[in-house]
Amino acid sequence: MGFLSRFRRNANKIEDPDALAGDEQEEPENQIIDEPLESLQLQSQDNPGGESEWETDESLEAIETPSDKRTRRLRERTSKSIKAPVKYSPEIKTSKLVPKPSHGLSIDLSKIVNQPSRRRISATPAFEEIMSELETTLLEADMGHIAVDAVLAEMRSKLIGAPLPKKGDVGHLLDATLVSALDSLLRVSYWDFDQTIEALLDEEPPVVIMLVGVNGTGKTTTAAKISYRLIQRGLSVVLGAADTFRAGAIDQLSDHAERIGARCVKSQRGGDSAAVARDAIDSAKARGDDVVIIDTAGRMQNKTNLMQELKKVHRVSSPHIVLFVGDALAGNDAVEQARKFQSVLHFDGAVLTKLDTDARGGAALSIAHATNRPIVLAGSGQEYQDLIDFEPVHFLTKLLSEDIDPSVFSIFGVDGR
Predict the structure, then answer these.
(1) How distant, in Å, are the alpha carbons of 22, 183, 203, 300, 322 from that of 69?
(2) I want to staple 298 with a disulfide (CB 3.0 to 4.6 A). Which of 43, 98, 215, 236 is the partner?
(3) Contacts of residue 281, Cβ cutoff 8 Å, sequence gap at least 6
(4) pTM
(5) Environment class of 147 (CB within 10 Å of its CB; exposed 0-12, middle 13-18, buried 19+)
(6) What is the dihedral of CA 359, 363, 364, 365, to 10 degrees?
(7) Quick count: other Cβ atoms within 10 Å of Cβ 30?
């Protein structure tokens, strides 16, 4: 079952498209308790000064019936602005990064659009039930709250006011709108990792890459995978074991370096991590190596003193590229970690480990939107060669293929590329 199966199952229950269209005669706000007019007049005479202590807003809300509460929630929800949340967008310096063509994913709706209806979709109870079910589905997929709000806002903006489709086309319309909304989450400035390395080598070798992230996300293994990838391209790599805090981290990176043919610059446990990073860069310059990859200690994003020390490593090494390494299985936690690291170091892109085992895709769908930085690389297995370029269209197609027939997808160029 795909991660959207619950939402689509609920949406398919709508056999009558009219349930999505507004009824101008329906005015739930004006439903009055059926009492004789004389009784109402007597009540007003008993309390000529206004509402009694039993009729305050708090007491009336406390005794609302379920239908009253539902009506109130629907009214409050539809009265809110449906503008999508603004992306977190710090100042970006992308001149050093080589962009790559962007593509988007969509579903052709020409047949539905060419058969317009006089009736329009509105925020009816049936529509709100669909949106509520979708919200639950996305949250259960470990998507971040900001990304979920953006998807719901995008769908509302496109659906409300749109022509009401025929009975058999409701599902197609919902599918197409959802695909478009999910695709918009991944719309950031993607750059090509290999071409960026080559461009930087032409300017000022060695190229310095710094990996950051919390404990246990796979930074050390990712450092080895990136090194292996570059060595296969004929480049020489130096690994800087700047994780001087974790037991076994230095030996682990050193073992990786020996297996893949890279050099490793290290110190004793408890040493100055910034000094190790500086020594690795100086060693690479002296021997004419091409790339330095600095493996830093895991930092919990809420430990201010440790994050400040990480900034010291960054300041001393002046890396050309900073990559945030996140665990795809961590879901919304990975998103919050990325947001915090972005506020401290302004990384250039993300590497998601264990993406091949993540069936829900919440972290991948949310990180780019939350940080305005692309996912550049993804771990697809345990071997050194299992590191692939992240392709948003291919990822989204694979994620949705169990719910929606991939043959209906259309891939299009973005920004004229």
Answers:
(1) 20, 34, 64, 41, 49
(2) 215
(3) 206, 208, 240, 292, 317
(4) 0.77
(5) buried
(6) 100
(7) 6
Task: Say which residue, 88 or 297, is predicted with more confidence.
Answer: 297
Which alpha helices (H) appear in 324-417, and where do they start and end? 332-345, 362-371, 392-400
Please, which residues have CB within 8 angstroms of residue 209's CB and are 6 or more apart in sequence? Answer: 226, 291, 292, 293, 294, 319, 320, 321, 322, 323
Token pair 């090194």: residue:
227
Query: For the CA atoms of the chain, what is the radius of gyration?
Result: 27
Q: How far apart are CA 362 and CA 145, in angstroms?
A: 10
Peptide bond into 206 cis (omega under 30): yes
Amino acid at 395: F
Q: Please, what is the average pLDDT of the chain? A: 77
Overall size of the chain counted in residues:
417
- The crossing angle, in degrees rounded to 10, of helices 304-317 and 332-345 is 50
**Two structure tokens written together for 254:** 């050193």
Place of tokens 């992240």: 390
Relative to beta strand 207-212, strand 321-327 is parallel
Q: Among candidates 170, 16, 105, which has minimal Cα distance to 409?
A: 105
Q: Is 392:179 a contact under the CB 8 Å cutoff?
A: no
Start-to-end C-alpha separation, the chain: 35
Q: What pLDDT is attached to residue 416? A: 45
Q: Which residues contact 185 (CB under 8 A, 6 or more apart)?
A: 147, 150, 151, 365, 366, 368, 369
Instruction: Tell me which DSSP letter residue 97 carries.
Output: S
Do strands 387-389 and 375-379 pair parallel, antiparallel, or not at all (unpaired)?
A: antiparallel
Residue 348: pLDDT over 80: yes
